[in-house]
Structures are given as structure tokens and as C-alpha cells.
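FAQ
Q: What does a multi-component entry look like?
A: The components come first, one per line:
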Amino acid sequence: MVTDFKAMRVTALAGGVGGAKLALGLQLALAPGNLTVIVNTGDDFEHFGLAISPDVDTVCYTLAGKANTEKGWGLQGESWNVLTALKALSAPTWFQLGDQDLATHLERTRLLQAGWSLSQVTEHFCKLWQVSSHVLPMSDQPFRTLIRTQTGELLAFQEYFVRERCEPAVAEIMFQHAEDIQPAPQALKSVDAADLVVICPSNPWVSIDPILALPGMVPALKKKPVIAVSPIIQGKTVKGPAAKMAQELGLEASAAAVLGHYADFVNGFIYDQLDGDIFTSDAYPGIIKKATNTIMKNDEDKLRLAIETLKLGEFLINNIYHHD
Amino acid sequence: MVTDFKAMRVTALAGGVGGAKLALGLQLALAPGNLTVIVNTGDDFEHFGLAISPDVDTVCYTLAGKANTEKGWGLQGESWNVLTALKALSAPTWFQLGDQDLATHLERTRLLQAGWSLSQVTEHFCKLWQVSSHVLPMSDQPFRTLIRTQTGELLAFQEYFVRERCEPAVAEIMFQHAEDIQPAPQALKSVDAADLVVICPSNPWVSIDPILALPGMVPALKKKPVIAVSPIIQGKTVKGPAAKMAQELGLEASAAAVLGHYADFVNGFIYDQLDGDIFTSDAYPGIIKKATNTIMKNDEDKLRLAIETLKLGEFLINNIYHHD
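Then the predicted structure of the entire assembly, as C-alpha cells:
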């Protein structure tokens, strides 16, 4: 019987900005050290010879209180001297490399070349930044999300997302290296050890699916109480191309479609109160659905949504997963 | 018969700071486009995954008027935001990466990975920076100068030079990849096409010897009027470890030793007036020796030394190499 949601051990699955917001809420709600975040690395890419892990950085920066919440990406108090100099060299500047952010990429690249794993590098940064939670890149091996556009172009995810500003219509989402990838050493263990797993409001198709594609991940989730939080509100997203993508892929862009996507292994589903009436009483009867305000504009919003998620988790554990 | 030294086509061999100074003097003295500088790449190394070419950059920055002449290295108006951030990440900061300088390394790395040669990258930068001279890295293939210290350590040149501040006593200078290296496409051609070759006052053992080690280089020099300028003045150097190294290697640290080192293929030798009396009348009788002020504190000094060098070149061409 869980009597204090703060004491729960929670593993969250997250992509970039939206996922990082709820992860921060969970970190604020839980006892220090009780949150583990498994982060999508399908967006990772090489740029100027540097190893860049956009979602891992967004999650770490956010949990460290270093994220630029006004811009929604990058670091607070960032400067752009190198980017200005790159512009003067006619170098590509579509990926906005801030000076401080660049130091992260440089040091990560150096450590990876010295034989560290991405997990070890991430743990090292989190220690330096005094992040109380555990951040796990989903895998230490390369995994690449590619976007095939409706004009037949094959784009690395960041090329699609940043350089092309999500403008090309998506024909297919492809995972490169998915067949022989292994989860990061602690990833499945953290799911096994969790009281509750939370799927953050990240893009289901490009941010969460790579994590779900890891061998052993879905079977591990099936043994646990899992709550997903919808990133889609009234057919739209707060940020990012999930809704646009869904339409282009011939999927429904709705909270219901998100639930359908996860229905195999979730026990609880949180969606926005603006979508309050979308589920008929016979839809996914085994899954507890809860409508609430899911928009996270500030840390109070994040904490509130996290507590609602954890309380639904408590209910699931005590009423469905209660084995005492 | 050469009647105007400005019209001469000159190829200079150079390492870093000292060599770049005379190269700038030569650029100021000659008609635009008439100077080609072949630059040592034995100092090149990989740091944080980036391809760094210290001597090539020093020469390009100097010829572009972008070099920080107060510091003696790096760029004018440089900022250090990334380095500060690297320090905060406990990353190694012994190699001082300025923000603008870093942009050069990033873009060079990107272009090399895209299949450009180091020569092409260097030409591209020189065009952007409106450098009228031609700067040629000595080779497009990796060539690495290593320092074996008297305690048996094997250091990459920049590790010895910057990280260890030239403090370890040198037992041996080693060239890695020297056996199968080829000169850069234009390097030998620029020697063949030159009216005069100038060996700049760079470290003979670590900055010029790598260039001389290129297959075909010494034979090409032997066909040309060649003037060397001594980097050693009264047993010392203006900058850099050449004199200290010479002593540790059991060589004489003197202008005479420098001349001895180059005696096989030079026709003229310029050394400092402070060393005015070091040559006996029977020393290297075939080589014209000229004492002058070789210290280059400002652009006037550089131009003056360049003009003295070019005038000695004129004399050599008209009196020794005059085939009309």
C-alpha cells in the first residue's frame, strides 16, 4: 500500500521539451533521487564533428534548472559568439549552437571518444549540475530517427525538426539501427524497480516510440502500472509537430489516438480537460482515464500535473496492482 | 634579371608565430598574390573531436590581419565563453579555445568530414578573410610531430608545447606518418614556380623539418634560390622552445647551428645583427650571410626584414641564379 506519493520510485519516458516539463514536475513532487528519466536518443546527431543529444540535454538542463523556459529550448543566459563567428564563415547555422551548450557537446564528444558511454557522460553532467534525478539515455548505441518526406527525401530528425522547421509533409518515420540496439544498462532495471512508470507528454511517434522499440521495453512496461499523459489537446500540441505529423501519416490527431497508441500496456491515461468528453464509456474499459489541466506554463503547473499523475498512480497501485 | 622585388614570386616555409610574422612582412612587400606560404601541419591535432591546425591558423589569421599581436597567438577581440563553460564542466582547458577560433575549428572539421581536403578548407577560409596570399598546409594527409621526453613520455606536439609549456626535457623529435605522406597538391609546384624560397624564422627542428621531410621537397629547394632567416638570436629565441630544445638534443643553440642545419640547400642566410661576428670567413663559403635586425615587433619591422630578405634574394637571383 502506497501512502505517500513522494516516496514512490518513478521511471518516466521522455522526449524533449514537453517531456522535460513533466519530468521536472515529477522531480519537484518526489523525494530526491526517486525519479529516473529514460530519454529518447533518436534525435541524436553529429554536427561539426560533435555528438549532439538534443533530448537528453533538454531533460538535463530542465532538471538542473538551467533551461531557458522563455525560449522553450537551450540554456538560460546563453550567449552566441561562436554561432556569430560560424555565420561569418558561411557555415550552416540552422542548428542554434549556444556557447554554453557547445561546451556540453564538446565535452560529451571528448568523453565519448575517450571511451565513455553516453550513459556515463550523462551521469557525469548530472552530477556536475547537481541533478537529483537519474537521467538515462535510452541506449548507449546509436539509434537514429529518420523522416521520409512525401517528396521522397530522407531527413535526419533534427534536419526535419530544426532545419526544415517540420514543414515537409511526413510519409514515414523510420528507425535506423533499431534492429540490433540494446537499452542502456540501467534502463530496463529502472522500469523493473519502479513503483510507477509515466509516459510524459512527448511526441508518441518520434519521441516515445524509439524508447518503446528497445528490445524488452514493452514487456517490462506490461509488468508495471503505467500512466501516459497526452501531448495532444483538442487535436493540437502545445509545441512540436505531433499533431501535424499524425494527420500526414493518416492517423487521428487526438488524445484518443494517443491512448490507442499506448493501449497495450498503459493502465492510466491523463488528458486535457478541454478534451473532457472524448471518451465513450466503453472505450478502453480497462484503462483509467482522467481529464485535467495538462498545460504546463510554470513550475507550479508542472508540479500540479505531476502530483495528479502520481495520485492516479497511487490509486492504480492500491486498487489494481495491490498484491498485499 | 629581377629589377623590382615586389614582382617576385616568393614561396615561404613557415611554422607558427615567428614564421607568420615574416610571412606578413613578405605579403606587405610583394605584389598581391605573389606570396605562397607552405605551413607546417606537424602540430595538428584532434581535440574535443575537432581538427585543429595551429600553425595554419596562425599564418592565416596573421595574413588576414586578425591575429592578436599583443598575446602573440589567437585572434584579436577574442571572447572565451565556451572555454569558461568547459571549465565549469571540469573539461580540459589547457588548449585555449577562443569562441571565434572555435568556429574555425568547427567549420574546418565539418568540411573535412564532408570530404574537403585541408588545402581546400584553408583556401576557402583565406578567400573569406580576403587574404591575398596563398596559404598551403604542407600536406593534406595527417602528419604528427611527437616529442619523446627524457623521462620517456611520448607527447603530441601541442601537449608538449601548450599543456606542458615546453617544460619536459626533449630526448627526441619524432615524425609520425612521415614515411607515406605526400605534399599538398600545390606545395612542390609553388616551389618550382617561385623566383625565391624563404625559410621563415620558425623552429628548424619542429616547424620546418616536417616540411623538409616531405618527399621531393629538398630536391625541389636545391633547384631554387633559397634564403633562411634564423629564429635564434644570441643563443635564444624571441618566442618558442627552439633554443631550449637544441640544448636538450645536444645541438648548439646558435644562428650558426641553424645555418648548418639548412646548409645543404640554402644560398642566403639572414641572422641577427647581435650575432654579427659569429661566422668566420671560411664558414659555408658558398652561402651569402647577412646580419640585420631580425626582431619583428610591429608591421614596419616585418616589412623591413621582408624587404631585406627580398633584396638579398634579388642579389642571389641576379648574381648566382642569373641564367639570362
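Q: Is there any commentary attached?
A: Sometimes. For this entry: Chain B has two domains: 5-67+103-142+183-319, 144-176.
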